[in-house]
């Protein structure tokens, strides 16, 4: 029994190390997009209404700092989270976008967060603006946000990013948050699980859910990730649903915490 528990613990640690490496790589990829931007391009509008490139990076810097606070000072984080509203998020992004040394603040904060999550006990539960989560879930959420806001930056700059296997983390979070999406819309989640079958960037198959499930979602992993992060309208994506419940979920899916997102208009 002792060796069995040790094996499970080592597997969890190994998975967390891989996840944190993916989080670092996702941050580095976005950093490469903005590292040499001329001053004027920081003010380019992104698809998020009212948000510039600077707003996007400022938001990531702020949410990274909130995740760090959750891990290092839970009472202080709980106080902030207890009074958080969408206006707080927008205000933090606007203030951060105007503050000096934005890029350095984001870089420093994400390194601090990575080091803190790597040192945390894997079974620790961390507070957030939605349900509490494990260290691995926090890392996955940070990766998802970095990728999603990085997509807004790429769109503003007219850059087409090459999808990577890191999308599996984003897709997984989108699936794990299925019932949360129903809840924030005041709806009852379906009692039955869905089958999710996605095609990864290299043509590999990524599957979740019972093989014999009637309700299912299929399509490219990139498109699924764009949908659950609400970076594209479903009409612009090659995602297919079988079953009324599965089809409805695609209209409300969100992999991020907080109230229902407004989504994006068809292109």
Please give the largest β-sheet: 4 strands, mixed
Q: Please identify, by name, the CATH architecture of the largest domain.
A: Up-down Bundle
Percent range for helical residues? 55-70%
CATH topology of the largest domain, by name, is Four Helix Bundle (Hemerythrin (Met), subunit A)
- Strand adjacency order, main sheet: 4-3-5-6
The first-to-last residue Cα distance is: 56 Å
Count of helical stretches:
10
Shape: globular
| Strand composition percent | 5-15%
Overall average pLDDT: 93
Q: Which structural class best describes the helix and strand composition?
A: alpha+beta
Question: Could you say how many structural domains there are in total?
Answer: 2
Low-confidence stretches: 1-13
The ordered string of helix (H) and strand (E) elements is HHHHHEEHHHEEEHEH
Query: CATH class of the largest domain, anyone?
Result: Mainly Alpha
User: Would you report the number of β strands?
Assistant: 6
Verbal overview:
The protein has 267 residues and is α+β, with helices and mostly antiparallel strands. It has two domains: 2-135, Four Helix Bundle (Hemerythrin (Met), subunit A) (Up-down Bundle); 167-252, Nonspecific Lipid-transfer Protein, Chain A (2-Layer Sandwich). The protein contains ten helices and six strands; from the N terminus they run αααααββαααβββαβα. The chain has a four-stranded mixed sheet. A two-stranded antiparallel ribbon has the order 1-2.
